[in-house]
Specification:
about 120 residues, alpha+beta, 3-stranded mixed beta sheet, 5 strands, about 20% strand, flat
Length: about 120
Amino acid sequence: MRFTENRKNVLNVLKNAKRPITAEEIDAEITKELDLSTIYRALNFLEENQFISSASFGKNIRFFFCEDKFNHFLYCEKCSKIEVFNDCFAQKLKKKLNKQYNFQIESHILYFRGICNACKQEEEL
């Protein structure tokens, strides 16, 4: 399969994203008129060929991202907001798992689910 213009456009949106985003958010960012099925096909190609990754944090919403840019998240279960953090505590665990299981870890994604501060304050009212 070729790396089409549509796939390049979708990948560029993800490279410029400040956090993991949904297919619908990608659709809103692309200036060229594409239908959502074309975006999903491009996302599928990009993920199968390891250009991007995805995660479902809850509510059956799938978020897409460039793994070299993000792989640590806080996900609010109430408003679906995603906060990205860069502190990686997994390096020590990675070394231990590599040694203990003789397993070469290529990448990881770490996320915590909970309630963000804005939603907590809203609940307290």
